[in-house]
Give the backbone structure.
Amino acid sequence: MSGIFAIIVKELGDHLSSKRFTILFLLVYLAGLAGAYFGVQALISDPANSTGFSFPFLSLMTSIDGASPPFISFISIFGPIIGLALGFDSINREIASGTMSRLASQPIHRDDIINGKFLAGLVTIALLIMSIVLIITGMGILGLGIVPSLEEASRILAFSAISIVYISLWLGIGILLSILVRRTATSALAGIALWIFFSFIILFIAGLVTNLLVPMKVPITDNDPEIVTANDALRRSLTRLSPNTLFDEATIVLMNPTVRTLGLVIVDRPELIIPNPIALDQSLTLIWPHVTGLIAALIITFTISYLKFMRQDMRPSWE
Amino acid sequence: MPDTVIELDKLTKAYGETIAVNELSMQIEQGEIFGFLGPNGAGKTTTILMLMGLTEPSSGIAKVAGYQLPRQGIKIRRLAGYLPENVGFYDDMTAYQNLLYTARLNSIPRGESENKVTDVLAAVGLKDVSDKKVGKFSKGMKQRLGIADVLIKEPSVAFLDEPTAGVDPEGVKLILGLIRNLSEEKKTTVMLSSHLLYQVQRICHRVGIIAKGRLVAYGSIERLGKEALKGGDLTIEVQLAEKSESRALLEDLRSLPSVKDVHRSGSALSVRCGEDVRPLIAKKIVEQGAQLLEMKLRDSSLEEIYTRYFRET
């Protein structure tokens, strides 16, 4: 037990004192603060027409009133980079510098090494996310002169938790790459390739495959409604293979209480839909599959890392 | 603790088709310094990795201090220290911080560990640079820090892989002294691998020679010498005073019983013969009126033993 604790303390110290962390920290803080600043300005100048009228604190992280992208999209795009940056060289750098065989020859279990490194990364991510979220909320309290409602506070907390899981998944992917790939430069590149694939390329592929399997006529109104919904459902299912889509959908539902469904619904009598926000538990029900999907992906990634790492010879260096 | 500390029985490690270590069997006693010799790629490092529980054996039995590998690897790693070949440290941490981390991983209590780190740094002569970052260290300093890293555990068994490779003569002397101390004062069992034969010869009680994964010779250096040279010829080196040798003397020596060949270079002669005929040689030299300065039987040095074994395999 003390072995893993020593590893966590050492790795955490490494993270917090590294230049890499300073850069990530500054970027996340700048994005968060800019979004909150413009959000507050929009709310003050024209409260009634602002998108954040009913949930001002949520709007600080979702508002597109200002010039900067909303904080939740920033995390969606930039979160994987944070996770990868903390993990991509965690194992292969130790092997390349000859410290791994020394570390592995200490009286610790071998899984303590990756568990310790993962937990240290997790703590770093949690510190980063929780601190910026608290600062944004604090700016809201100061700027608006009100405190967040329980509903808002709970949603912000749930959003932070999902962000931590999402970034940790990419940390896990980074650690896996650092086990599979010997050179740190290559594992960094492989991480970026995966990030681009899951953020952008998968959208093209999903569209391509969907139109191949469920072709639609142009214009869209010429199609049978069943075809349209089938097409949409397939495209969504395919893009949900990407953790980034899961995170996007989950945070949109959480941070916009008026979102009541993901995907298309056919409405016979639109006047029956009242544009009211839904309760937190209803939002959570809607995104529960997304959250379990993210956690499952994390567990699978970590299990593969674990199996690969336990079977590796702890040679002094790669030959 | 049993007297036999390290015990191998038909230990084998195969990587796919290639067999890195092939049915290795040997015993190493407590307090012994055992030299593990062989060319690069002979399987020395693989054997040590198996003994530390860092690689799983394909078959066979390995025991260290009565604990069986790889199942009880963590117990072995608690009492055994390992210095890897080309040992590495965290470059952006100081020597002191690096060792403190090792102390923490070994669950040495906080209060105790700080004194211990200072002590072992002094023992390897790195006290003055303990607050310097290891990234600035030379190869020799890193190697000494590696020894300190093993010492801090106060191990009862130490596996040292090429402990003196790339170290300057002064450092080699220090490291060999530390190793000898470990064995004599702390009764630590030391298994060291090396290709620097004359150093091994100076401190090892017994050696094992490994080639292509097989143990080809195993025992004390004297015994190996006798075995290796059994049936072979002896060489007697004779040094005469300048210009005192003559053609007649050479002829005389060649005619001695069991002498096979006599070589001359300047005033030095080397006589190859089946048995030790030094008294007869001395007598002939005096009879011919030449002046004998020195005469000796060439040692069966480790190097000779080593090359002889590798000529055979």
